[in-house]
Design goal:
five-stranded parallel sheet; 213 residues; alpha/beta; Rossmann fold
Length: 213
């Protein structure tokens, strides 16, 4: 992802993430790193543990999910089952899946089933943090729209390209609010959204958003 050298955006206080990864060493490293960034992290190593976490009263709203889980780690069967069951439990859940570098089929299938985003391994902590931050922003925008009495929008975002195939209403509102909150500065808007500046320019032009005179 072309995001420059900005530091990863800080999560909202107390933001909870469920990390589903069967590799104990990698899971421990990612969990410690995300906690260091300010996230509250719960971990699971297989489907049953993941679903148990999502059945809690205060279940995490963000999930970082490795599709290759036991007892079939060489397939995406268990990971997709977690994705399906998680969205049945919480339709607004933001699930970001981890896939092999060349496993575009798995990524496309996950997005088709409702994953918010996908990240291809190997992936940097900065990219993970930016993707989680973007998922958090979209979740907040959906909540705002729901409070306004509007229909919940299903949104998907492709890493490296910014919001993609997003419900245009939520996408535009999120960009307008962030641009205004950033003092109409493109660089700050890019930082808050975890996007490259050229992508912000693209979406500003797409929706005809300009600085006030």
């Amino acid at each position: 992802m072309n995001a420059g050298h900005d530091h990863p955006p800080a999560p909202a206080s107390g933001t909870a993430v469920l990390l589903v990864e069967d590799d104990a060493a990698l899971c421990g490293y990612l969990a410690a790193s995300l906690r260091g960034m300010g996230y509250h992290v719960e971990t699971a190593h297989d489907r049953s543990q993941a679903i148990a976490c999502l059945q809690q009263v205060n279940a995490p709203g963000l999930v970082l999910l490795d599709l290759g889980l036991p007892p079939h780690p060489s397939t995406m069967r268990e990971g997709l089952a977690v994705l399906d069951q998680g969205l049945l439990l919480h339709p607004g859940l933001k699930i970001l899946v981890l896939t092999g570098q060349d496993d575009s089929t798995a990524a496309q299938e996950a997005v088709r089933r409702g994953a918010f985003d996908y990240l291809s391994k190997p992936v940097t902590l900065q990219v993970i943090a930016q993707a989680l931050h973007r998922a958090e922003l979209f979740a907040k925008e959906e909540a705002h729209i729901a409070r306004a009495g509007e229909t919940r929008l299903h949104i998907t975002a492709r890493i490296g390209e910014g919001p993609k195939e997003a419900g245009a209403q939520a996408e535009e509102q999120l960009l307008r609010r962030t641009f205004a909150a950033a003092g109409y500065k493109v660089s700050e808007t890019a930082r808050q959204l975890g996007l490259a500046r050229e992508h912000v320019y693209y979406y500003l032009n797409k929706y005809g958003i300009r600085r006030p005179e």
